[in-house]
Design goal:
Keywords: Leucine-rich repeat, Ubl conjugation pathway. One of its GO terms (biological process) is SCF-dependent proteasomal ubiquitin-dependent protein catabolic process. By secondary structure, the protein is α/β, with parallel strands linked by helices. Helices cover about 45% and strands about 10% of the residues. It is built from 26 helices and 18 strands. The protein has an 18-stranded parallel β-sheet, with helices on one face. Strand 10, helix 15 and strand 11 form a beta-alpha-beta unit. Helix 8 runs parallel beside helix 9 and helix 20 runs parallel beside helix 22. The relative contact order is 0.04.
Amino acid sequence: MTPELMIKACSFYTGHLVKTHFCTWRDITHKNENVALADKMNRAVTCYDFRLQKSVFHHWHSYMEDQKEKLKNMVLRIQRIIYCHKLTIILTKWRNKARCKNKKKEDELMSKHELQLKKWRNRLLLKGASAEKSNFPEQSSSEVCLVDETLECDISQLPERAILQIFFYLSLKDVLICGQVNHAWMLMTQLSSLWNAIDFSTVKHAIPDKYIVSTLQRWHLNVLRLNFRGCLLRPKTFRSASHCRNLQELNVSDCPTFTDESMRHISEGCPGVLYLNLSNTTITNRTMRLLPRHFHNLQNLSLAYCRRFTDKGLQYLNLGNGCHKLIYLDLSGCTQISVQGFRYIANSCTGILHLIINDMPTLTDNCVKALVEKCSHITSMIFTGAPHISDCTFKALSTCKLRKIRFEGNKRITDASFKFMDKNYPDLSHIYMADCKGITDSSLRSLSPLKQLTVLNLANCVRIGDVGLRQFLDGPASIRIRELNLSNCVQLSDVSVLKLSERCPNLNYLSLRNCEHLTAQGIAYIVNIFSLVSIDLSGTDISNEDLNVLSRHKKLKELSVSACYRITDDGIQITDSVMEMLSAKCHYLHILDISGCVLLTDQILDDLQIGCKQLRILRMQYCTNISKNAAERMSSKVQQQEYNSNDPPRWFRYDREGNPLTQPENITSSKGHLELTVEKSTYSSEEEAV
């Protein structure tokens, strides 16, 4: 064998051996990899199954937790419903028991009152009989002594604080009369605190200028408030007010002789004035120039019906220190002011809170826009007699935080304005929209979310009906409402009164004047308004039986039933019928209006003296069967009385005998008188204060 063959044989053998071992290693390695991969796949499947189970369990756990929470809430709700149901049952039983007890108490009070009224009648009869026997009975010695003892009271011995409280209720004329009684009374009238406020308007026709000058010279250091309203004085008299260095309030309204020269002297001598009323005077731009120069702390300014100053005068308000502290401004009747004038006001008086612009036919939306551009703090605004104001004004006022709004006699204001109120004025508390014919039920629906609303006046808004009032009362606004005027809203019926009794727990004043659809059922609902103090049912179909029902109300102090021709003596006498109930239960009745009740006679006045002893104001217009002598006797029992026996106006729709008029002639022509009468009574005392 050659070496070459040996090498070749060894190489072949070695290669075959390597190939054999490599194939064996490859087979073993591939087998191990398959086993490892299979093991990994098994572990991956196990892990995936575990994660899937975990995810499913998590969702199941969340679902079960939600179900538990829902079940818990459901149980709480059921418990609450059961609790409310129990409370309802308890309250129903308590209410029924309270009503029974109250009815029993009323019956006892009624019987007791009947006995008392009989005693009073007997005493009146005895007094009348004794008066016929002797008109001037002799007094016994004990009675004379008693009278002498009672006359020895001397109020000058009272503390100074008590004396001041007494004299503060007197007018200037009464104080002057008291000073002439004797020396002690004269000293009481010379207390310095008594002369802090002097009102010369009450004695403008009785006191000469000389006395006014001497009074101001004597008390010039004590005078803080001066009222010259309507006084026809000489310029020298007005000049004497400049000596009152501490003067804070000055009222010279309706003074025809007050001029710019008078204002110059006062402004130089009284720089601390806070309140200034110049309404209906002849001031010009000269006075407007004096205001920012001297009255740096001026807060209240009235320029109503001053038509001699111009826009230039308003521009002067920004001179010097300006009138930047002004918070109250009255521009009523100043028809000469243009849009530019309102811009001048906005530049100089940015802090205005209360703005009054009445009797301004030239006032437009552009004027209001120019004003509110910089006066964004306005909280109350009064526009009466401004027929050109429209919904655009409310849109412009959206930047202000209004709380009180008063419009009257405007036909361009629609429901769109009330939508602005809901969105932009959440703090509105007083709304007066009397005689706005464009207001419908939709407006009331927009007012229902106002939680702060306390006074709402929609008198003469004839398009308002039961639907709108129900939607308004369903909202939170009904909870705080205290005063509601719905005079001449002729579409309202008993349904609205029922809703009022259910949703208005704080209602004090309610006017349903001339609501013709009000029936006896509605009167019964009024009794359930327990917080009611004053009610106006004039011009309604109320009868004697309705008065009987109304007499169950215990808190009623003011009742107006004028032009109610169905009320007769049976409804107002102290017998077994209606007014007996009224006098027995309405012990605090202060104001009674029976105007137009033509069937009432003199007997009513005797009955009222017995049953309603706290009666203060009595109105008896167009009472044809009440004599003048009886009215004069009654006038000494009340503080204020209005009486005449004229025939009722034709718009009352019945004659002096109480018979309905057969021919409705002149009804259309008399509507103006009706509207005038209603307009005078559109606002209550609180509204006038606004």
